[in-house]
Fold:
Amino acid sequence: MLILSYIVLMSPILPLNITFLLFDGFSNMVLASAIEPLRAARDLSGKRLFSWQVASLTGGPAISSSRLAVGVDIAADRIGATDALVLVAGYRVRDHLQRDTLTLIRRKARGVPIIGALDTGAWLLAAAGLLHGRRATIHWLELDAFAEAFVDLKPVAAPYVTDGNIITCGGAQGVLAWVLDLIGQRADAALRFDVANMFQHQTDPAAPTPDRPVGRTANRILPAPLQRAILHMRQSADAPLPLPQIAEQAAVSLRTLDRLFTTTLGMSAGRYYRSIRLSHARALAMETQLTLAEIAARTGFQSAQTLARSYRQQFRQTIGQTRRPLAAGH
Structure:
């Protein structure tokens, strides 16, 4: 059972709040694989699907495995209500097994709907007694030692593993796979695909499940006609083609094209085409000073008014509101 049983109980209007607790030696790539897709999902959808804060044991900067100092929002002992507490550890995880630290982890995990551990974070959960009898994974370099150190749990070689309300991930690819699935469940398959495509990570729903013992996440190959259609949609976002012409270039009938979009991405071809253009409009609004009319012209809308109306429907805000500097923090 995936984490959905916990998420669906939360209001779809409120963002899922995630607290990442960093331990010195964590991997920058692992942290980025968790946070950047959440940011991309928020930007592409225009909805505050997720919020997050970053914590360290002391409240001071956390030092990554590459010696980069990462500023945090809060000290661990000040972590309050959150929907998910995710431990992010990397090299020298055994240096963090002090009694006070493990006590803090147990205390902060109490009553939290989702408990996560990335990279070698599962070692901390196990040492804190939170993985007793559960299935879990860890970075593949630590898997054998993990199994020997904690005989009361069930180690699994998988990108990520869910057991009850606890999610454990191995390396960066496993973290990315989990976050993409989380995005898909909080939003839809289309947003999941778009975020995955940004990070060149596409997974097949019919491929081995996250809990199946595989060494890496399986690459997905979308149906060839769908790939061709999406390519032509993106190339023609500034001068949209009629859908029958897109279908012709994809070498399928319009009915088949629409069925492929609906079954694979959960929306019609027309709706997906419009979402591409609106996402482009959002990027132009955030990154340029083009006028509304100029953005409309560059994204294939007949007029500024048409763009403004579609934009509000898609993102629940105006282009002017999008352009306002994002508030500091998350």
User: Anything to note?
Assistant: Residues 119 and 171 are 5 Å apart (CA to CA). Confidence is low (pLDDT under 50) at residues 1-12, 201-219.
